[in-house]
Amino acid sequence: GKGEALPKGNAAGEAALQQALSEITEEFMWDFEGRVLGIWAMHFAGLISRELDQPRDAMDFLRTAAGYVDEADAPPAAREVTLLSYVELSKAAIHFMDRDGNWVQDALKFFDDLQERWPNHLRWAQGQRVGLAHAWLLHEAGRNQDAIAKVQEVIAAATKTSSGVDFEAGNVLSQLMTD
Description:
- The chain is globular.
- The chain is mostly helical.
- Helix content is 72%, strand content 0%.
- It starts with 10 loop residues before the first helix and ends with a helix.
């Protein structure tokens, strides 16, 4: 499946993830609120929640991590985790798309202001991967032509910046065109 969560019946693994989530949310996240470490805590809480098959928590944590800072006010250390959280938000939305709630549409609404919040995101490899994640969301929402256009935009940026993402983008484009 698409990013399967923890296998059913893995009580020890689930307990370990629950403990990690508890430590992150209760002891770590709020101690570092407003700092890069706090954004990383939100990011990891979202990943753990996804593995624990908790869609609302996963989406909320990842959305918070992705939306915590804008390009204009992000210290360089926050850029990586912020953009990575956009990518993981897209993956989580696609993972949970067959569940209650319209996770893909919710994520797309969040991505709508990406260009305003991160106008130069395609200058960096991680931002180009955000563009690919956005393309997958568009594809899953049935907007394949928009998805293809987004990947073409990423390919142009990746080629211009020599980021190495152009090969990955080419693979995504070929998948979108044959789907």
